[in-house]
Amino acid sequence: MSNWLQNMPTAEAYGLNKVLFELHHKPDDLAAYLGDKEAYLDRFALTGRARAAIRDNDVAALYLAGANPYLLRAHCIGIKIPEPVSVGALKALAGKN
Amino acid sequence: MSNWLQNMPTAEAYGLNKVLFELHHKPDDLAAYLGDKEAYLDRFALTGRARAAIRDNDVAALYLAGANPYLLRAHCIGIKIPEPVSVGALKALAGKN
Amino acid sequence: MAEIVAIHAASHTPVMLNFPDAIAASEREEIFAGFRAMGAAIAAARPQALIVLSDDHVHNFFLNNLPALCIGAAPQYPTPVEHWLKAEKRILPGDAALGAYLLSRLMESDFDPALSMELTLDHGVLAPLELAGVARDIPLVPILINCVQPPLPTMRRCHAFGVALGRALRTYPALERVAILATGGISHDLATPRMGMVNEAFDREFLRLLEAGDAAGVVKYSTEHVHEAGNGAEEIRMWLAAMGAADGAHFHRHYYRAVPNWYTGIGIGEWKA
Amino acid sequence: MAEIVAIHAASHTPVMLNFPDAIAASEREEIFAGFRAMGAAIAAARPQALIVLSDDHVHNFFLNNLPALCIGAAPQYPTPVEHWLKAEKRILPGDAALGAYLLSRLMESDFDPALSMELTLDHGVLAPLELAGVARDIPLVPILINCVQPPLPTMRRCHAFGVALGRALRTYPALERVAILATGGISHDLATPRMGMVNEAFDREFLRLLEAGDAAGVVKYSTEHVHEAGNGAEEIRMWLAAMGAADGAHFHRHYYRAVPNWYTGIGIGEWKA
Ligand SMILES: [Fe+3]
Ligand SMILES: [Fe+3]
Predict the structure, then answer these.
(1) S-S: C144 plus which of C70, C98, D66, D231, CB 3.0-4.6 Å?
(2) Is the pTM of this model over 0.95?
(3) Does the structure's ipTM exceed the value 0.90?
(4) Number of folded domains that form chain A
(5) C57 and C188 in contact (C-beta within 8 Å)?
(6) Which pairing describes strands D264-272 and C49-54: parallel, antiparallel, or unpaired?
(7) In whole angstroms, what is the distance from residue C198 CA to residue C202 CA?
(8) Short-list D211, D203, D207, D196, CA closest to D260
(9) A67, A46, A57, A53: which is closest to A4 by C-alpha?
(10) Are the beta carbons of D150 and B68 separated by less than 8 Å?
(11) Treating both helix axes as pointing N-terminal to C-terminal, what angle do A69-78 and A11-25 enclose, rounded to 10 degrees?
């Protein structure tokens, strides 16, 4: 049992986390993202899996790809994924990995 | 004798160095500065002395106010202050402080 | 030479500001009273500066430059950085000179803290200060320990950092009275399949070991069991640092309650000679 | 377990790329030959990864988060960050796994390095690699020591960091052959009234002490005399770290010349068992 899926972020996780960080810490980024997700994501070097997880608001996939928990939590709040959906998606993973 | 005027940057030096850092590390900042110095400097919290030193390309005053040497050097290169002018202004201080 | 006139520790969570009503009024009032008592004790000790040991929740720092330890040395700190935190935007006073002194002294003592002259503080610092009612008055030195993204500093190292911090504070010539507030933990978990878990057994044993005053035991227990208490429990590093700074003073647990609806075990305590 | 198959140190300056013609052709060719010989020795040692000990010249890091020590753990590093540096823009390969390992091991060994997974390297790393002709081939782990803005890590600490770095490298299970290149210094000064000063006496004594193999003496001399050698001389910290990693291997000075028109004392040397 570990508090962390990754003891060190993978390169994929780095890219994914960078999107979450910039999206919520740079003025205008959130508006740009909500306006045109695909165009916004084109700014970053992302694996196909990471890109799809962000685009689809797939909280479980974001977690499994190494999203930092604080960035993931802030992202769920920031883009207004309802709490039962985000927490439910995570809890559904329990015992599976 | 010390390699450093300040063992820790003052708050004034922080503001001054922030201008030099942003100016040469953010795309568009140098163009904005060269286009309208006063408007660009309005973005920052600067003492009157630090603001004047930057605005007037006063290399000696920038040094005395605590400009980091690497940022000061890069600034002199970046805004094309001729080497004899920048180095001359510094050398004229020798023995004075 | 400065005296460390108060050393407190308390849990933090944004939920205590954002969704106070997620728990029963009686529980909430009990907890808020605990924070107010802590604030009153800090104020009564009349510190001229307050060291806040906390963590940055990936707001000021990212993976391009993630410090294990960072000491603030700014004259002021805007807060909160979270646009979604229910707290008034304002600017807290900082003690830049004390921050600078601690940086130099801790570097001489074989620690490698990063310097920050500009931080926008997050709920980790703000929420406990806010609830304690001492957010505006005392100049701060924020010291941020990475608890949020591995690789994390070891529990042993965080305790040793606190020991060195206490020594450095006691030799500071420019003030007479300083205080320390450690914030974070205890058990909680965030954005994983265990989200919402509170490990009350872990929390009670952790607090018991603190009260027993067994530093090596606390470090060992923390190292071996933190993964049973959730990723938020990594924040016990701040409690270990405070214990180190306390230099053998006795820990008094003032409050504990497992608060699953706030996603956190809420502990409050104090080291007193 | 990895063997450290080569440990070299060399001065760096952007001038060696930007204004090579500022000195006589004969001097320049002598210096460039020294760098080429170093590159040939590194290549001949066939390292699978190269640790580059250098400093960030306030490009990646600013005073809002200025690490004393930072270890890179990225799969690649764009370079150069300076738009004004006369060097081809390209992307150097990184060994992220080795960087991650060193971070963890050094944190366990009571060091507090910052993590970086994204750095755009500057002339401090690039210029010596470029002149040595080994910039493209060997995966890098950049390790950046703050030499550019006080408060700076102590000379003693930088030597101890090197000792721990050497130990960590030698226990790395995933590679067999690693090398170290330390870059910076020796005496020079930048953007002060002493700009252009080269303190040849300092440089020669520093190199003599390295050859004498007296670690405590090198640390003491560096601490006591660095201010006579200019703010750029603070970069001898990288040489001290390399000496620490060399674990008693003998230092051989391969080249030295005071080069005032390049604003720098140019030294090149190597630790060999
Ligand atoms: Fe927290
Ligand atoms: Fe340099």
Answers:
(1) C70
(2) yes
(3) yes
(4) 1
(5) no
(6) unpaired
(7) 9
(8) D196
(9) A67
(10) no
(11) 40
